[in-house]
Structures are given as C-alpha cells and as structure tokens.
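for the recovery benchmark. tokens below, seq after
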C-alpha cells in the first residue's frame, strides 16, 4: 500500500531432513501396499487350491448324484409314457365295450337259435334211424337241415365264416349218412360206430364248441368260478374272524 508498511512473506526452503523424512514415509507406504497385495494373492491362491481339492474329492459323489438324477428323470419319462399308453388302451377298451354291449346280445340270440336247430336235428336223426325211416320224415329232416344252414349263413356277420363251414359239414353228414335213400347213403362212414357213437356226433360237438367260443362261455364260466371261490374264501375268513372274537 502506498505510504504503509510492506509485508514481505518469506517462504522457507525445505531442508534436507524434511525431504528424507518424506521419502521414508513414501517408501514405507509402498512397502506396506506391496505386502498387502502379496497377502491378498496368497489368500486367493490358497482358496483356489482348497476349492480344487474339495471339488476333486467330491467328484465321485457329484457324478453319482447326476447319474441318479438322470435315472430318476428317465424313470419319470417312462412312467409318463406308460400312463399315456394305459389311457389310450383304456379309451379303446371303453369304445370296444360300448360296441360289444350292442352286438353281444344279438350274437347270443343268433348263436342260441342256430344251436337249437342243430340240437333238434341231432336228436331227431337217431329217432328217425332206429324207427321206420319213412321217406316223408327224411324229407322233413332234410328240410330242417337246409333251414339250419341258411340260418347260419344269415348269421355269418355275427357268428363268422367258421360257423357256417361247420354247419355245412354237419348238414352233409346228416344227409349222406342218415337221410338219403338207402342205396345212396355213404358207405365210408358207419351210422353208429363202437361205443354207441353216432356219425354226426363229432360234427355236432365241433359246431357247439365253436358257438361256445364265440360267446366266450368258457371265459364266463371261469370268471363265475373265480367269483364263487372268492366269495367262499371271504365267507371262510369272516367265519374265522367271528370265531376269534368269540
């Protein structure tokens, strides 16, 4: 300021001792930082080694775990596939059962009708043969045999072609062995063989067995027998339980 005292700021030059102290501090900090970094790298390396060792030792267990998980997944997929197949079979069986409920009664009627005709002819043939063997009666029986064959043909849709074939054979045996005039009858097959077995008996049984097979009567008999046996067993168990309580 003009006319006033002047202030002079004198900057003190740092001494040599201060510079050495500052250098010492910087070096100390640098060394400390390097030590810390070395410790960090050591810790990281040690953790990596421990992790590697643990993973290596646990490798078989992880492998078995993964294999077991894969097996469980495969088993689950197989069970789903089986379930879908069972549902498909159940649906198809339900449709077939509904169709069979409609067809089976008609099939029973046709089989019983044809069997009644065959059984009547089976009983009338021996009576005719041991009787007077009148020609009029033979023609009536031959007409009955023709009706039986045509009835079987009309039932072919329900009973099948095999039943028609067996009915035709049964009719031919009855006619050629018993109902034709004596001079035209078959000489190869005797009307009655040893043991009182008639010539048309085997053919009649074959036709009857075919009708039973179509109606599944053997299966029904087996089911009824199983049901009866199960009921008897249940009754026996209940009896034993009541005795034990007493």
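predicted aa per position
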């Amino acid at each position: 300021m003009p006319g006033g005292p002047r202030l002079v700021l004198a900057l003190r030059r740092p001494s040599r001792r201060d510079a050495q102290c500052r250098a010492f501090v910087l070096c100390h900090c640098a060394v400390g930082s390097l030590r810390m970094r070395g410790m960090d790298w050591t810790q990281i390396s040690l953790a990596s080694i421990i992790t590697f060792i643990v993973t290596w030792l646990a490798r078989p267990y992880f492998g078995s775990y993964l294999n077991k998980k894969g097996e469980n997944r495969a088993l689950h997929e197989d069970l789903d596939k089986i379930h879908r197949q069972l549902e498909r079979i159940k649906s198809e069986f339900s449709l077939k059962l509904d169709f069979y409920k409609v067809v089976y009664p008609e099939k029973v009627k046709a089989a019983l009708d044809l069997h009644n005709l065959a059984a009547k002819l089976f009983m009338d043939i021996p009576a005719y043969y041991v009787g007077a063997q009148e020609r009029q009666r033979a023609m009536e029986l031959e007409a009955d045999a023709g009706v039986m064959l045509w009835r079987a043909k009309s039932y072919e849709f329900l009973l099948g072609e095999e039943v028609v074939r067996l009915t035709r054979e049964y009719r031919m045996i009855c006619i050629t062995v018993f109902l034709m005039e004596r001079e035209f009858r078959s000489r190869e097959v005797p009307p009655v063989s040893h043991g009182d077995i008639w010539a048309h008996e085997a053919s009649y049984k074959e036709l009857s067995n075919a009708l039973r097979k179509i109606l599944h009567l053997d299966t029904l008999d087996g089911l009824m027998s199983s049901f009866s046996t199960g009921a008897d067993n249940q009754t026996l168990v209940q009896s034993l339980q009541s005795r034990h309580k007493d």
